[in-house]
Amino acid sequence: MNKEDKGELEIKSETDLIRVRRLLREITHNMGFRTTDITRIITAASELVRNTVDYAGKGMMNWYIISTDNKEGIKIIFTDNGPGIPDIEKAMEPGFSTSNCLGMGLSGTKKLMDEMEIKSEVGKGTTVIIKKWLKS
Ligand SMILES: Nc1ncnc2c1ncn2[C@@H]1O[C@H](COP(=O)(O)OP(=O)(O)OP(=O)(O)O)[C@@H](O)[C@H]1O
Ligand SMILES: [Mg+2]
After folding, report:
1. Which of 24, 50, 54, 125 could form a disulfide with 81 if both were Cys (CB 3.0 to 4.6 A apart)?
2. Which residues contact 119 (CB under 8 A, 6 or more apart)?
3. pLDDT in tens, 3-32
4. Residue 81 belongs to what domain range?
5. Handedness of CA 64, 74, 46, 94 (dihedral sign)
């Protein structure tokens, strides 16, 4: 198979949402994801794009088609060099927000994806890794 299996996209402003959504829709559709899962992935990624722009100003999105012996999936990594998250557990709680927003971005993202991991260091930045597996 000769399909493109990774890529990256710079996130500099909210207008990059359109590019991210278009790109992820194409990749996940080509991978064979169903519409419901495509919507979940795009919704989750959109929240992480917004967080990148809102809290760090800018960042990167890297995507990879990943596989194990019996399954294929997509991994999307958001990295930024923003202020970082002092208490990740708290930030993951539904309703927690430092910006007077709904505080549903991270908790919602976790529900929509199969796997989610956050690494962050105050003053250095944040990395959020999400994965979705194709159901065979
Ligand atoms: N990339 C990031 N860098 C620094 N802080 C972050 C980052 N992403 C999230 N946070 C922190 O985690 C909190 C929770 O994020 P979450 O996306 O769940 O909610 P929100 O952005 O405040 O509101 P909503 O997404 O519902 O509009 C944020 O208020 C912010 O303090
Ligand atoms: Mg948010």
Report:
1. 125
2. 126, 127, 129
3. 569 999 999 999 999 999 999 999 999 999
4. 6-133
5. negative
Give the pLDDT mean for 96-104: 95
CATH code of the domain containing 49:
3.30.565.10
Distance 124 CA to ligand 1 centre (A): 16
Model confidence, pTM = 0.96
Which residues form ligand 1's pocket by a CB distance below 6 Å? 47, 51-52, 55-56, 80, 82-85, 91, 96-99, 101-107, 126
Report d(CA 61, CA 56) in Å as an integer: 13
Question: How many C-beta atoms lie closer than 10 Å to residue 82's C-beta?
Answer: 20
Of ligand 1's atoms, which has the minimum distance to the CA of residue 51? 8
Domain count, the chain: 1
- Tokens, residue 14: 């909210």
Ligand 1: which of 81, 85, 119 to mutate, most ligand atoms within 8 Å of CB?
85
